[in-house]
Amino acid sequence: MRLIREERGWSRSQLAEAAGVSHGDVTQFEAGAVAPSQPMLVRLTRAMGFHS
Question: How many angstroms separate the CA atoms of 23 and 51, rounded?
Fold first, then answer.
């Protein structure tokens, strides 16, 4: 997730806002401290432009 976010030139805050999650959540996901739930993962991937 971090690599894609960085390729787009987004900060963690920008991704968090686009996905409707907290900055802290994005930080924890990228650090591998916490795995996102499936609904949250869908929101994050959609915010980054991936659609199923």
Answer: 22
